[in-house]
Amino acid sequence: MHIVTTIAGSDSGGGAGIQADLKTFQELDVFGTSVITALTAQNTQGVMDVLPIEQAFINKQFHALLEDFPISAIKTGMLFSSDIIRTIALAMTNLTIPLIVDPVMIAKGGETLLQQEAVEALRNNLLPLATIVTPNIPEAETLTARKIETVSDIRLAAQSLLQLGVQCVIIKGGHLANKDFAVDYVFFKNGKSFSMQTSRIATKNTHGTGCTFSAALTAFIGRQMPIEQAIVEAKKFIQLAITHNLSIGHGNGPTNHFAYQKFKESCEVTIGETQ
Ligand SMILES: Nc1ncnc2c1ncn2[C@@H]1O[C@H](COP(=O)(O)OP(=O)(O)O)[C@@H](O)[C@H]1O
Ligand SMILES: Cc1ncc(COP(=O)(O)OP(=O)(O)O)c(N)n1
After folding, report:
1. Ligand 1: does its nearest atom lie under 6 Å from the Cβ of 182?
2. Which of 17, 165, 195, 225 could form a disulfide with 11 if both were Cys (CB 3.0 to 4.6 A apart)?
3. Residue 262's domain spans which residues?
4. Residues in domain Pyridoxamine kinase/Phosphomethylpyrimidine kinase (predicted)?
5. What mean pLDDT comes out for the span 22-37?
6. Does ligand 2 lie within 6 Å of residue 73's CB atom?
7. CB-ligand 2 contact for 9 (6 Å cutoff)
8. For the complex shown, is ipTM > 0.90?
9. Is 197 helix (H, G, I), strand (E, B) or coil?
10. Residue 120: inside a domain
């Protein structure tokens, strides 16, 4: 059994954060473990409050896992503060476990999940240790201090992130103004790149899409799947989770983690260039 870890915040509403990650891990046949960085009082309508966990206790959770389990992949989600980021980065130094960084910054409702002052720590302390980083467009803009409007802007932003030492950058196009398609752009350190296109699902139930995508990627990497195949398979997982989204709650409902196993054979991802 492959064992993977999510280092992230708890979403009491169950659609994002630790809860989304563990549901995804379970669906993909990996054993999920967790380090909780913050509690959120949250539902489909928004984040009401955030309670960060003390650094020393975050460290204890992480070391409890490292001492007992042969972890095969780790992902980070909501890290909230520069102190928490530095704690995780320090614990990751000298580990050779693949690290997937989802640079969560702002919730769908606009609430802060990463303090402004923590962006530098994310760039300087954690990204150099990352195997894959998965920003959405606003996150890529913040991390690179560049406006992103075109595919050429996406390529320049990815190159700037690769220069920090990240092995692979996936810039997610969920926030692009494309009515028909959801296109993500993948760039590797060795110069290889490709785009992944699926049909855009017209729904408001997209709470936790970023968390679910990066958790699926972590599960596939943890299962030792080759990296390009893991990225495409994670795109299929999120496409099916959004297609079969759940209309629960009064706001932006969650995605459906149970759809992939049932429908994976029927999901098409079109691979293209990044021009
Ligand atoms: N309406 C949609 N239909 C299909 N795929 C989507 C849709 N919205 C987002 N995605 C996909 O979900 C994944 C997460 O993207 P995004 O929503 O940009 O991340 P985040 O939740 O971090 O903002 C990406 O693969 C993106 O292309
Ligand atoms: C605890 C917690 N972590 C992360 C998020 C953001 O999740 P994301 O997948 O980016 O989804 P939306 O916030 O865009 O729905 C969160 N809300 N809570």
Report:
1. yes
2. 17
3. 3-136+204-270
4. 11-256
5. 98
6. no
7. yes
8. yes
9. strand
10. yes
